[in-house]
Amino acid sequence: MRLAGDMSITSTVHHVDGLPAEILDLYPDGISRRRFLSLLSASAALAMGASCSKIDRGSIVPYTRHPGEIKPGVAAYYASTFQEGWNVQGVLVKTREGRPIHIEGNPEHPVSRGTVSLRAMGDLLGLYDPDRLRAPLFNGEAATWKDAEQALTRVFEEARSGDKKILLLTGAVVSPTQKALIGDLKSALPGLLHYCWEPAASDKAAVSFKDVFSQIFLERADVILSFQCDFLGNDTKAPLNIRDFAARRRISNSTDGMNRLWAIEGSMTLTGANADQRLQVRPTNMARLAFTLARLLNELHGIPFPLQLRLEDFNAFDPETTAGALGLELSTLKLLADDLARARKSALILVGTGVPREVHQACYLLNVMVEAEGNTVETYGTIPDDSVSMVPHGLNVTLEMATGDDFSAGIFWGVNPAYNCPKESRWKETILRLPQSFRIGLYEDETALDCNWRLPEHHWLESWGDFQSASDYISLRQPVIGPIHDTRQGEDLFLSCLRGLNNQAPQNYLEYLKARWRSHVYPAGSPVDFDDFWNGALHNGGAKSSTRQQFGKVLGVSIFDIEHALTEAGKKISTDTSEALELLLLPGSGVYDGRYANNGWLNELPDPVTKATWGNPVSLSPTDADRLGLQNRDVVDISSGDANVEAPVLIQPGQCPGVAALALGYGRRTGSIAAGIGTNAYPLTNYSSWVPEVNIRRKEGNETRPIPFTQTHDRMEGRDLARSWTRNQYALLSEKEEEHDPHNQASLIPEREYPGHKWSMTVDLSACVGCSACVIACQSENNIPVVGPERVLRGRHMHWIRIDRYYEGDLQNPSVVHQPMFCQHCDDAPCEIVCPVNATTHSPDGLNQMIYNRCVGTRYCSNNCPFKVRRFNFFDYTSMKTEPESLVFNPEVTVRPRGVMEKCTFCIQRVENAKQKAKVQGRAVEDGDIVPACAGACPAGALVFGDLNNRASRVARLSDSDRAYHMLEELGIKPSVTYLADISNPVVEEEEE
Amino acid sequence: MKSEAVLEKLKPAPVIAGHVRLGDLDDQLLTHAGERPPLAWFIAFAMTSTAALIGMALIGYTIATGIGVWGNNIPVAWAFDIINFVFWVGIGHAGTLISAILLLFRARWRNAVSRFSEAMTIFAVICATLFPLIHVGRPWLAFWLGPYPNQRGIWPNFRSPLLWDVFAVNTYFLVSLLFWYIGLIPDLASMRDRTSNKIRKFVYTVISLGWRGASRHWRHYEKAYLVIAGLATGLVLSVHSVVSFDFAVSLVPGWHMTIFPPYFVAGAIFAGFAMVVMAMVVVRRTMRLEHLITEYHLEVMNKVILACSCLMGYAYLLEGFTAWYSQNSYIHHTFLQYVTGTYWWTGWLTITCNILIPQLLWLRWFRTHYSGMIFVTLAVTVGMWFERFVIIVSSLHEDFLPSAWHIYKPTIVDCGILLGSFGLFFTLVLLFARILPVIATTEMKMVLPGSQAHKEGGSHEQ
């Protein structure tokens, strides 16, 4: 019977004779009429469940002619590239029925090696953002692309003939082809001036050393010293760093080698939270400390100074004085120097963006002294020309220059200076002076509102492109969906204008890209013809460049720089405790520099350190808060110069006294989600992430502002939750025999038998750094709703997986441990017995199942869950979602209605897919076939899923580790999740032996 | 002389004051239905029905919008909804105890108050049943808790205490209703005989089921009454035990204690008696029933309240001892939180209102004067409501994993629905007081002096 054509169900499920094709394989004996009918209704119910509501949204029309790659019901993966600032990541985009629904790392990408940042995953939502500009606007009125093109071409012509200048301001140009295009533009228009502006990475020294022109090899590092470098947290390359760092932390026994992380920080970062040893030092004093270390390395360990520096140059940095002045123990400094000296080539010193210039020079010196260059770090090339670099204060100078009479237009492509320019007045002056202005971007944002032409561009998931950053591999980007709105790729627009200038430019950017690849990337004399090469590159996500960059061990820093740094550092010493504090301004972990401020997922993501969402409180140390008489939530005025910003206070354990921190990227003025959330900290930046002096005082009126935390209590209260041992403790413990096997507790309840699979997960706390990528991956895969700040305040956020962050010890100097927590799929699940309607049951393969359709919402299961991992739909969060927002939903996962409980399912849709696939292929499910979203996203590999009954599986092996334990074992509920204790590697204890 | 004084003291106290004739009873108790209520009644009714309507409106709002309009969150998934449920079920227990258990113990004084307290039980159970129905996320599917055969082939989960609640509360309601109704039949028949209004006569005729006062009818009546009293007796102990299983069967620290069933039952009787006394005082005063509901009745009920208060005190101490003795850090923490944590004031309020203030009932003045009684019973009502708050909210908001700890704050909708439940309860009470005889005239007639042939002022013989 052919029924598919006239069924009005609201999802596309490929039917064969009315049934999903894969189901037929499960009934090899044929289907009786009764079974057929029940399957039919089941599939209809599934389809109904997968749709947002019971409202009939029209009928679906199955393909009569099947487009080659698209199989309805089967996901297709495409390789593409995510770029943020100077960072490039290869990703795999999972699409269903021609639209992307999930983003994963591309394991074959040699640069990102399978890691993916949470912002890349989160930006999927940005594709479907209903606030995206949908068609060109001219002065607020609807316009056509033809008009826009003509206007821009006219501007170009006038500029060329009248010898006028045009300002082109873009974000970081990491694309060789985009760079070539801009070069072509410049040849056609001599007056075109191009500058880059990356608000979150505006410090040239930081950028040039770390992000663009050096590559670090963390897996080779035995000792890592970080000066306020959040390489595990906020850095755009963090996922890769986490992968390499964690590879040296996941030990299987107490004698395995581990790396050691020393963190010297003013503000608590995720990196500091994971450090084995952490020293609290104000940024002003960091260069001093670094030079003191250099001196110790020379004096105590005989490591020679490079660049013809002499010990006399370091007279100002007596170790004892430094230690005393900074409130540190001299012995600790010596231990650090010892560590670095012992590690030598395997040491690595990293420096972040929120520090004075001298610190970069000092750390460079240290790296050279330990000979890290060539081993744990490789620096490429010289600092390139201005056209693709940021000169400090570049934006200021650029904008000022653009007020000149010889400027005829400004084009702002992928930048939002109206929002993030530190001096708003500077921006206003410029934009008012420019006769014509063009904004090419995704939204009608602050900058767009100031510009004449507002031109919507493609989202990166709709675009072509290539990217190369500090590597000889060029990543490719391909569109995975046709343009959703009437948008164009910015490059295409410029190409049309070039054609309008009678330039022989290709028809579109794809042609341009292919042409450039043919000439620059495609290896000459290759046996493979170009089209195959091109398709292969698209498939893989990129190709190695045939023209290698010239690398050399060029010292990017001269002796004059170091000497200057020495002088500067010698002058500064900050120990006073006046009201003025230093301020660190670093991009928000979700919203980054503000570009994702309209993204619900990224706003609701709890900051990995503070666990605050939806806004940016100012972090103060407990000491400072005490001194200033401030408590959590008190609103304060933060002023520096004539900039004044207000924010609520957050008392941050581990924050160095004298240092405050505030996240950038909030306080947007446009965007239905972004507007009014948090406070705009850019006015304080002055092009640097570090502000040497700010004044913080309570705002008039004693206002308090609530901070929506997902976690409101930070202590373990002496409970055995996240186990953290030092290596010595681990060694001692592994010598002792296990006292008793908790699973052999006497029980009236018979043990469950699992004859087939027994799905289980392990969580390695040693590897987990708390980056929270798993949270976004889970949200993306499982259609988890965003609830908003008021509801997070009430305690109703919906994340199925959370990272619990506990502080232990003294508040001013705590140790930190992170613990991912999600449904433990207990064998004797306490939630199952108390549900009155049997809405939560146990599967024969070990999963605790949640049956949304049956749940009436008594919430008893949540009460009885000791881990509190169950979430309740207090309101209807999803049925009002229409296109394009609703397009992000994963059709394999039910969208839950109001009044229903939900929780982690171990990505049962993926489990079932793998089982079906194996069955179709006539084999057993193998270890590694099933990767839940969280495990796939985890850069550290801390989450492992598998079949415990398969003794050869990773999960079985890890569960047998001597670090393994279960949460709340004494309750006898037998969780299926095994935790592996966190092992820290401090150096102090070894000395005591 | 001395022995006579002692004998005098040992004589059963009068349960009826002064000289009351059979006819007087009928005149006084059965005529209210036909009369126009006084203005005070209308004012009271207006207030209570307004409150009830506000409550109903807010319930409608909740069902239409979602549980999110309340203050519940994760981890405090139950709050006012279940507090109110337990509170109201508890209040119902006084009636059943008075009607059923005291019947079996042959306490003569129960006759004057049994009808009224039994009615209060039914109204309390009605209020209580409201909450499990509306507290679920999808109330339109709440019927899935019922064990009816269905084409899905799914039974509800009989291991779940919530399902035991379904049976317990339903049984309680039905048995109480039946018990109350059977007791009403002779009175309804009297009202049928006394009224001349055609409609009323028809209604009374139907609902009095043809009672003629024949000796056979009386025999059946007595037997049925006794049997159901026996059933109801079990319910006094079982219903609130089952409700306590909602907590005791779970693993939440502070809930998972074996003392919960007797503790809850004692608490229920405690709260129920307090509510009965409160309402009784009003009824006695406004309907001028001082000679039927004598000082003795009030004193005895107050003594029960005092006894229960002491029991509660013992239970609190025992819980505290168990928590300490268990050496379980989770339970330690929970109990400390009760009196020193976020909601410390509710813990102290509970102790004060439930243990300390009722001790005033040792003083005869408080047992016999309205203001004293009202003060104490009001305190007990408030104290018992807060006791459930302490048990539910305080335990849930800080349990095993500190990362999940979160404060709970009620909303105006929560408070409005609580107010509405009180409104509903008192509206029903007020209606009952005007429509049906508040005292079981039949039973009163049994305890009138001279009513029993064998003994002087003897008790109700079986």
List keywords for this structure.
heterodimer; A: 993 residues; alpha/beta; 6-stranded mixed sheet; 19% strand; globular; B: 462 residues; mainly alpha; 16 helices
Give an account of the 3D structure.
The complex is a heterodimer of chains A (993) and B (462). With 993 residues, chain A is an alpha/beta fold. Chain A is built from 32 helices and 39 strands. In chain A, the strands form twelve sheets. In chain A, strands 7-6-18-17-16-8-9 form a seven-stranded mixed beta sheet, with helices on both faces. In chain A, α10 (283-301) packs parallel to α13. The longest helix of chain A is centred in the first third of the chain and has 19 residues, at 283-301. Chain A starts with 14 loop residues before the first strand and ends with a helix. With 462 residues, chain B is mainly alpha-helical. Chain B is built from 16 helices and no strands. The longest helix of chain B is centred in the middle third of the chain and has 34 residues, at 161-194. Mean pLDDT of chain B is 90; it is low at 456-462. At the A-B interface, β30, α27, α28 and β34 of A face α6 and α11 of B.
Short note summarizing the structure:
Chain A is an alpha/beta fold. In chain A, 55% of the residues are buried. Chain B is mostly helical.
Count of β-strands of chain A: 39
Structural class estimated from helices and strands of chain B:
mainly alpha
Strand content of chain B: under 5%
Given the structure, what is the number of helices of chain A?
Answer: 32
Q: How large is the radius of gyration of chain A? A: 29 Å
Could you give a short account of the major beta sheet of chain A? 7 strands, mixed
Specify the helix fraction band of chain A: 25-40%
Regions of chain B with pLDDT < 50 over 5+ consecutive residues? 456-462
Specify the overall morphology of chain A: globular
The largest sheet of chain A has its strands arranged as 7-6-18-17-16-8-9
Overall shape of chain B: it is globular
Number of strands of chain B: 0
- Low-pLDDT runs of 5+ residues of chain A are 1-23, 39-53, 207-212, 381-392, 550-555
What percent of residues of chain A are in strands? 15-25%
